Amino acid sequence: MAQVDQKALLEFVLRQGDNTLVLGHRVSEWCGHAPVLEEDIALANTALDLIGQTQMWLGLAAEIEGEGHSADDMAYLRDAWDFRNLLLVELPNGDFGRTILRQFLFDAFSAIYLPLLTKSADPRVAEIAAKATKEVAYHLERSAQTVVGLGDGSEESHARMQEALDYLWPYVGEMFASDSVDQAMAEAGIGPDPAGLRAEYDALIGRVLSEATLRIPEDSFAHKGGRNGYMHTEHLGHLLTQMQWLQRAYPGCEW
Amino acid sequence: MYAQMVKSTGDAVKSREDMSDDERHFQDKVDANIKVEPRDWMPDDYRKTLIRQIGQHAHSEIVGQLPEGNWITRAPTLERKAILLAKVQDEAGHGLYLYCAAETLGVTRDELTEKLLSGRMKYSSIFNYPTLTWADMGAVGWLVDGAAIMNQVPLQRTSYGPYSRAMVRICKEESFHQRQGYAIMMKMAQGSPAQRKMAQDALNRMWYPSLMMFGPSDKDSVHSAQSMAWKIKINTNDELRQKFVNETVPQAEYLGLTIPDENLKFNEETGNYDFSQPDWDEFFEVLKGNGPCNTDRLNARRKAWDDGAWVREGLLAHAEKRAAAKVAAE
Amino acid sequence: MKKEWPLWEVFIRGQHGLNHRHVGSLHAPDAETAILNARDVYTRRNEGLSIWVVEARHISASAPGDKGPLFEPSESKVYRHPTFYDIPKDVGHM
User: Fold this and answer.
1) Chain A adjacent subunits, 3+ CB pairs under 8 A
2) Which of B60, B128, B157, B161 could cross-link to B124 by cystine, CB 3.0-4.6 Å?
3) pLDDT tens, N- to C-terminus, chain C (94 residues)
4) How far away is chain A from the Cα of B311, in angstroms, using its nearest Cα?
5) How far apart are CA A156 and CA A166, in angstroms?
6) Per UniProt, what is one Pfam family of this protein (chain C) (predicted)?
C-alpha cells in the first residue's frame, strides 16, 4: 500500500463513523414512539445496524489514532468540534416523514458509496464496507418504499413529505462537498471522491422522488460544515449532552 | 403479572352437571391438554376473558417499552445501547405477537389500542414507576423480566393455541433479557462507590413494585379459579411470587446488595423465604391511575398513536391507489 | 378515514431446507411492505432464508366440525405405514 497520510485517513474514517453514530442515535430515539408496531421494530433494526457499523468505524479510527483509545472513547469523549458527521444526520427527527426521508437521502448515498469502498486499498476499510453494504441495501429498499408510499399517499402525507424534502434538501449537497481529505483518499486508493458520485445519486433519488410525486427544490444551496467540523448545527451539542452524559458524569467507570 | 387481576365470569366454576354438552366437551379437551384453536367452539366467557388477558399482556409489552426506552439515548457504551435497543425492540415484537393472538378471537389491534388509550384496558402496574438511573436498566431486566418469566414460562402450556404459540416464541426471545439486566447489575455492584450506590438505590425502588407484579393474593378469587380451570392461568399469584423471591434472594446476595425487607429470612420449615408483602394500597392506587408515571405513559402512547395517524392512513391510501391502478390495467 | 392495515400471515423457510412454516402474523398496507415487515419482525434472530406472506382473508381453512370425516378415515389405513410390515431380520435393512 502506498504511503497514506494517517491524519487524512483518520479524518476519513471519522466521517464514516460519526455519520452512523449520530444517525443511529437519532433513529433510536423513535423506539417506543413509532406510528405502528411494525415500523417501531423496523426502525430499531436500522438503528442497530448503524450502531454496529459505528463500532467498526470508530474502532478503526481509534486504531489509526494510535493513542490507546477505544471505539467508545471516540463516541463518548470527543466534543462537538471533533465530530465529522454530515449536518443532515444531526438534524432533529421532526415527524416520521422527515425521519424516513432523511434516512432515504442518506441510504441512497451509502448504497452508492459503500460498494466502492469495498474495493479500498485499505483492507480494514474494505471489510467494514463489505458488511455495511448489505445492511444499507436493505435500508434503502425500505426507506425508498416508505417515501414512495407516503409521498404518493394521502393529501396530508404528500404535503408532509414535500415539506420534509424542502427542509432537508439544503443539507444534501454536503455529501458531495469534497476537500483535500477526499482527494488524498482518492489518490491513495482508499475511497472515491464523493463529488464524482453526484450524478448517480441524483438519478437514483430522482427516480424514487418522482415516483413519490415529490418535487425537488430548485435552489441548490447547500449547508456545510459538518463533515469537515468547521461549524455544526446547534442540535449536535444537545445530542452529545444526552449521549455522553454518563461517561462524562462518572469518568473511568465500567458499564 | 403482565396481566394482573383479569376478571373472568365472576361466578364459581361450573360443576360438570351444570355444564351444557358443548361446555363439557370443551372442558374435557382442556383437561386433556388438547389446544383450543380459533375456530373451535369455546364458551363466550372464555373468549372474553382471554381477550382481556392477552390484550392486557400486549399492552404491558408496549407501555413497557417506555421506561427502558427512556435510557436508550443515554446508554453509556455503544454495546449497551445496542443491547438495550434490541431488548426494547423485542418488547414491541412481543406486543405484536400477542395482539395477533388476540385478533384470532375476533377483536382488532386498533380496537384494543383504543381501549388502552382511553383507559378502559389496563397494563401492568410496574410500568408506572420511573427509571431514574442507569442502574434501573439493570434492575428492570433482572427483577421485572425475572418476574415476568415466572409467569410466562408456564403460560407456554396455556390452553389457547395462538396464545401458547406466542408465549413459546416470547420465552425463547426473552431468555437474554433477564441476563442482560443482571450483567448490568454485576458491573454496577462491582464498580465505583457511586455505581454501587446506584445499584442499591435501584433495588430499593424496584423491589416492592416487582412483587406487586404478581397481583394480590388470589387463592380465594373466583376469577382465578375459573381461569385456572380453563388453563389460561397456570399458577396462583402467591406461588409465583414465592418462587420469584426464592430465586432472587441468592442473586442479590451474589451482587452484595441488600433487599429492602427486614423480615426477609429463610424458613427452614417451609423451605421458602419469608418476606414482607408490598403495600397493596399503593398497588390499587397505581391501577386506578395514580402511579408516579401513569399520566406520562399513557400520554406518550397517545402521542405516538395520534402523530402516527397520517402515516398509517397515507401508506394505506397509497396501497389502495396501487391496487385500483392494477385492476384498471387488467 | 379510519381503517386498519390488513392482516397478513407470514411463512418462513429456515436454514435447513424444510418447508415454509407459519410463524405468525402482522399488519401491512400491501404485500411488498408485508414482506419487509416480516423480515424485520420475524427474522431478527437469523431465522429465515425465504418469506411468504398471504393476506389472512385469502386463507381457506377446514371447518373444525369436519375433523371427524376429514381425518379419522386415515386412521384405519395402517398399511400406509412401514411398521405395518414384518420383514425378517435376515433380510437386512429395508
Assistant:
1) B, C
2) B60
3) 468 999 999 999 988 878 999 999 999 999 999 999 999 999 998 888 899 999 999 999 888 777 788 888 888 888 889 889 999 999 988 8
4) 7
5) 15
6) PaaB
